[in-house]
Queue: 2 jobs
Job 1
Amino acid sequence: MTPDIVCMGEPMLEFNERPDGSYLRGFGGDTSNVAIAAARQGARAGYVSALGADVFGDAFAELWQQEGVDCSQVLRRSDASTGIYFVSHDARGHHFTYYRAGSAASRYTPEELPADYVARAKILQLSGISQAIGQAPREACFRAIEIARRSGVQVAYDTNLRLRLWPLEAAREVIHLAMAQADIALPSLDDATQLVGTDDPSKIADFYLGLGPKIVALKLGKDGALIATRERRERLAPMKVEAVDATGAGDTFDGAFLARLVAGDDPFAAGRYANAAAALSTTGYGAVAPIPRPDAVRRLLATAYSQ
């Protein structure tokens, strides 16, 4: 299979706290979530990374096979483990505790990158986290972007700012350098407020369009999204759902948005679809399990736009 969407980053096993205090085992890692979300919407998706030669790595390989995500280019390391994280919840929202130092993905090098695999895609998707986990994967991501641009592959970049991984100034420099080489910007309002220095969605869209991307899909959390091009912009109202856990909602948005672009939608139709998919992903616990299928997304869209 030649994937239409190739995602690159770090997959991580997830343990998500439930109301009774127990933890539900699941799967996470922002770009892995994106690949799965895209595949569930019908896109051909593939993944580039490294896993430990451990039971958690085996679980990911099985998951991707079940979800139809090509993992033929994912390396397995006997000298490093698969990363894990815990999600806890309180009145302020959801919080992450990571155990990823020295993980297999954090050791990924530019020399290990499958250049032909990237060059045959339609979209390469990566994120700030993909580059924050270490110097070697940071350089590998820039190498992937270089290959994509040279091969006519669109680059989609999610800011996904994690200040536990690197300081703000370093993150800003790398993320904006990568974003300047992207075609599709996928920031969130929380990230952009720190990276750009304003919480005004319109000004944030202007900033990222000014860097170079042709499309900006700004995720506004519970307030919906803003889709902007140089010619047009559209604010998308939030969808009404019974939300219980927002883990991975932005990743679901990304995957659904890119899947619909590959399917031929314009950015605004793709944004409306992704906005609904992201809302539905908050109705269950974990990053992957609640990612919706197209029938559910279209039902929500039909309900929302018939009112």
Job 2
Amino acid sequence: MPKALTITHVPFEDLGTLGLELERAGAHIEFRDASTADLQHVNPLDPSLLIVLGGPIGAYELESYPFIRDEIDLLRARLAAKRPTLGICLGAQLIAAVAGARVYPGAHGKELGWAPVAAGPDAALYPAFSRLLANAPLFLHWHGDTFDLPKGARHLGQTSQYPHQAFALENYALGLQFHPEVTADGLERWYVGHACELAGAKIDVAELRRRGRRWAPKLECAALKFWRAWVAQALNWGNGL
């Protein structure tokens, strides 16, 4: 049975639709909370898939959140071995940092809410990702940090506010700045967990919920198809096929 090790930073930013596809593929999903788990003793090559999810901290805040160093060490060993790895939001930023790119606060403010993602110059190399962009009119964005594109990475997605929204390292690592995994029901926990951030950004929660109820179901359908293709590819890559 393949194992999908999932590193979380806050409990409400979960696997969403990706979890459904991992279960469908027969994967055993194991969770580790980055802030409390002993990541130094995790074998980086053991899981079939490594997934690092989002959170409201910066990949560069190592002094405030020392456990980030352990995540970086885990990812460094994982990527060096070219083992299947996925990062979403903070997870993507950590992959970018390990790959040698700069991660930093965005100069154009927070990207928070529902907006489209346009294809990057290399998106055509990844048909499943191209179909995701074509089939989901809008995606959820929830970040204030951004990153430079890692050297040698393929640029898959972009927005007018922040151009580096998705990248791939060959076929073994994928970084997504936006959130294709979310569900309309699951987002109710985000609105509570991120209440202070939403208030500080003067976001109307009722309107954000209304848009989520409209667009999340369309995203869920498109994302399930994308995750199915990604999980199959990642498991095949992990088996050396």
